[in-house]
# Entry
Amino acid sequence: MSGKLCDKLKNLSLYPMHMPGHKRNTDICGDFLPYDIDITEITGFDDLHRASGVIDDIQRRLAAFYGAKKSFLLVNGSTCGIMAAVVALCSFGDKIIAARNCHRSVYKAIELYNLSPTWVTPPLDTQTGIFTSVTAECIEKAIEHAPDAKAVIITTPTYEGAVSDTEKIAKVCEKHNIPLICDEAHGAHFPLFYGASAVGDISVTSLHKTLPCLTQVACLNIFSDKVNTERIAETLQMFETSSPSYVLMASADSCMTLLENSGKELAQRHTQRLEHFYKAAESLKHLHIKNSENCDKSRIVICCENTDISGRDLFECLRERHGIECEMASMRYAVALTSICDSDEGLLRLENALAAIDKDLHKVQCTPLSEICAPNVCKTAYQAQKCEKMLVPLNESIGKACGEYVWAYPPGVPVVAPGEVITAGAVQSILEMRRAKLNVISHAEEKILILK
Ligand SMILES: Cc1ncc(COP(=O)(O)O)c(C=O)c1O
# Structure
């Protein structure tokens, strides 16, 4: 643990007559959890919501790392940064352009502020079921449809590592004077590997997902003068705790120190590991690793379409037989998340496990999945959530207005959202996801909430 905040925490000697109630007493609490550095905003330790001291020092280093004009350190994950960014740029009832594969935090911000979204659905790879990148052309079309939208928000990279051409998209947004928010939750490590972060006006990124940082630590970066920094600071106060954890903030401090001192070297070593892995994976006969130009190579996406194993079964097999817990599984793929903290042995274990599984697989011809259609909307999510609802069997819901979000988590992209008309395709997708044993989040297994 190192950095200015970390040093101050290590050297704390005053008796704590303040929160938290454990008083850093490791004799009583034990030293398994970091009680000894868990404090509140005591003298000399700055204030996350008005940072000017040791916390601002971390924010300045984050801004340097991401090439931002200003960075806000977040302790409530990218979730709070995304919601704060949307609410800062939009007023109640405004229009917004959003990628359909956005995270649920975007859907929740849209619901909270009664926004009317114009959805941009990235093309689906119908073999694997993976959303590909959002194109500048799609954004241009969406802006033609909603020229008075107050913001554009896209996810790049996605859960599966698909990267959009943010430079091109930012130019389109700039031309129409609409600010661009990039949900870069999965791309905190990008400056280390690819030299640049997403451009646009705001990016929100989860340090905890791909960098050595404790869970919940994220940051919001501002890149342009179009964004009112004060307004972002205000909206962050709506979504972020007033008691930010110093343990979490110290982990951001420590993470930045590590990256400043040895980030390049660690990234280089990991790149070599990945190169070795991707080369070895070329000899797989049935499984294949997604490896295209515009995808993040540190996100290993193991595709199993056209084989007699599902993504979920592959996930279970890696877990039960090879001792490898992956990040997520979908119907036709599983995702292994790697980082600079991986070991050569870890990647080698995955390489050997995949070779062993691949040996026993057989070819099966899979049918292409259906493209995702733009939803037919009868009410905004805000209006729909205020309506009376009732549960009906899935097969009786077609053509009715939906009263809930139904999504497989992760990645948490809804098949149908409140206020949208339920289609036969949506019902079929829900049934398929359940059959594939995905973690489908909804009110009831074989029923769905509709508006009365
Ligand atoms: C694309 C995307 N955006 C945002 C988030 C939210 O990030 P956090 O967990 O840091 O709040 C997630 C979480 O999985 C995500 O997948």
About this structure: The domain at 381-451 is CATH 3.90.105.10 (Molybdopterin biosynthesis moea protein, domain 2). The mean pLDDT is 94. Residues 246-281 form the longest helix (36 residues). The first strand starts at residue 70 and ends at 74.
